[in-house]
Amino acid sequence: TYVSTLGDVFERTTKEALQVHVLRGPEARREAIISLLNARSLEIEEHDFFVLILIGHGTWDGRTYKFNIPGADLTSEEISTLVDAIPARRQLVTVTSSASGALIDVLKQPGRVIITATRSGRERNATVFAEYWVRALPDEAADSDKNLIITAAEAFQYTKRRVKDFYEREKRLAGEHPRM
Fold this sequence. Notes:
By secondary structure, the protein is of the alpha/beta class. The chain has six helices and six strands. The protein has helices at residues 2-13, 30-43, 76-84, 104-107, 129-136, 152-169; strands spanning 49-54, 57-60, 65-68, 74-75, 90-95, 112-116. The protein has a three-stranded parallel β-sheet, with no helix packed on it. Helix 5 (129-136) packs across helix 6. The longest helix has 18 residues, at 152-169. The chain is globular.
């Protein structure tokens, strides 16, 4: 699965000490996510770098984005409150779901980079963004400046190209337009 692969990628490709926490399947419930992020908010310091990657499905009803998980979904307001409580001045939030573009205005903060699979909440079809995002992180082809470091911007550009190529190759109307 993408979640398992992503955890492995972070552990293998980073020289810095990392704390990687992966919740998937039945353990990725609302209460577990809230508990984990609340606990991290007490441990993370201003000088730390915080990354949150949500892989799954999302919905938007015209007002509220929901990250679809087993049991009660996590709303855009809850995600914003949880991430805002993280004291790290540098943050990356990547949401690979359908309708994820609805989170951009809700999560916008100084020092926070937001990457979404869709440009708005209106793009509601299943996305392929997660597949290419996970592939980008260990792929030397994503390292556009060839400095042996794949930045979020480089991974985003790689993923955006691959998503576009996917829809062209499949001769399908693009149902997602990634944003950073």
